[in-house]
Amino acid sequence: MRKKLLMVIPNLGLGGAQRAFHDHSVELSKYYDVTEAVFDLDLDNLYPSGNPLESLKVEGGGGPVRKVTNFFKRVSQLKQLKQRLKTDICISHLEGADYVNLLSKGQEKVILLIQGSKTHDRNISGATGWLRKSVLMPMLYKRADRIVCVSRDIIPEMVDDYGVDRRKLSAINNSFEVESVWEKAQEPLPPAMQAVYDSAPILVTSGRLAIQKNQKPLLDIFAELRKTNPSKLVFIGDGELRTEIVDHARSLGLRVYEAWAEQALTPEFDVYFVGLQHNPFQYIRPATAFVFPSAWEGFPLALGEAMTCGVPVVSTDCPTGPREMLAPDSATPAQPIRAAEWAEYGILMPMLTDAGTLAADEQVWTDTLRALLQDEAKRKHLGAVARQRSNDFTHANTFRRWQKLIDEVLAEK
């Protein structure tokens, strides 16, 4: 008789966490009866799994009193749902769901999935951030039966900063639809975009236009690079910092194409904001290199998918994920790196977040990208090994480990 597994996430919509939630739901339904739960169906389900979906029907938003009231309504509703479904084990994705999962815990087992660095997340700030980091996480996370981190480097954070028992912690990396990504990457670009790619070397980046992805310094680096190396920069994605990033590009004298504006797509521009794409991989595979300037991560889907596309990848050595992906046998350095590290599966670069060293760090990026653009043999090698490395992140490899962990937790008294 198959065990009943309930998966909880605060909201649906477009995002890496929602994509991972979908993958977990699909893959784990091969072994368990999976039901999905969401706080409220305020956003479209862009990644439907085919498994049953339950809404707790509790909206977000409002003032402090309403938020607290809704929080406890969610706890009550999830507790009732667990009882109605006779849930054996409940896995929560994202911090808001973690708290509700833990406080509604009954006889079922509880697993939390930590999808990103908490210590380095600059969105966790102010009084609410202090409450989360200093009270809620240290107090509640200890109640979990297991905590799964998507990167090995999140484990020390959980132990040192939040007091979690190391024996409860495991690292299971995110997985990617490796075969599907590679297949989609073979689709040709639209003719107008192909003309852009044919006109100059292309640097491409993919991700939400947001503080975490830290794209503004990339524009400064690109503007300097173009003085000696004609090239173009393509942004895949959209987000809350769209206007700020586009304005910064223009302030540097770069000619900007915006997919959401009524502009003809031609090779005359320097920077291309192509927005959200149904198939981003067709833009990544033919690029000269993939650049990834994030300030922090978990185990980034965008970087793994770029590796799957077989392009050389250049990434900040940010917490957490890129080092584990590109230099898996190396230890995490005690201090941020200040020079390019040509690693086994890609290039690790200084972060672009320290105002005191930013000018020097940007110069390292410029010099490294210039060297990469001038070395076709090195690019081919890095693209080939990146694709080879991506095979370690298949669903089959990842979810064998998940099944083993879940069965171990279910067997515990």
From TrEMBL:
Stretches assigned to coiled coil: none
Pfam families in alphabetical order: Glyco_transf_4, Glycos_transf_1
InterPro entries given in the database record: Glyco_trans_1, Glyco_trans_4-like_N
CDD domains assigned to the protein according to its UniProt record, in alphabetical order: GT4_GT28_WabH-like (cd03811)
Glycosyltransferase subfamily 4-like N-terminal domain location: 66-177
Transmembrane segments: none
Residue ranges of domain Glycosyl transferase family in the record: 197-329
Protein name as catalogued: Glycosyltransferase
Lineage of producing organism: Bacteria, Pseudomonadati, Bacteroidota, Cytophagia, Cytophagales
